[in-house]
Amino acid sequence: MKYWISVISKDHVLSGLAAGFTQAHGDKAAQLDLLGEGDLVFFYSPGTLFRHGEILQAFTGVARVTDNKAYEVKGSPNGPALRRNVTAVPSAEVAAAALAPALEFITDKADWATALRRGLIEIGEADARRLATAMGAALPARTAG
Length: 145
Prior knowledge:
Elements lengths: L2 E5 L2 H10 L1 E5 L14 E10 L2 E14 L5 E3 L7 E8 L5 E2 H4 L20 E4 L1 H11 L10
Parallel strand pairs: 1-3
Antiparallel strand pairs: 1-8, 2-6, 3-4, 4-6, 4-7, 5-6
């Protein structure tokens, strides 16, 4: 099992989790193929709405990947998209600034938001556990090794 952070606006996180998927367009769509069945995804939302809304900078959801491969969806106003099926893990929204000092993948603590600009970021189990604890999300027992 791997752990990931996916950077998506809060409105897209919430609507996707409610419908059982996560989605990406354009050059970020290919990143969805990196996810494996059973992987855990934490969603970071820089804003409340895609390219609009208010600045948020919070972790807004958690999901477990439930399929083996990305699939294409047509009919989106932004053109074709790729999706992965997921199951939402109950969790609470938490401000990223409060967690940044404790997250190992963020090396520049003063400029922590730069580490969260990419579309999909693989993180280690220790960071996943820190995020899960802060968000009140249950994780399985520690992996061996």
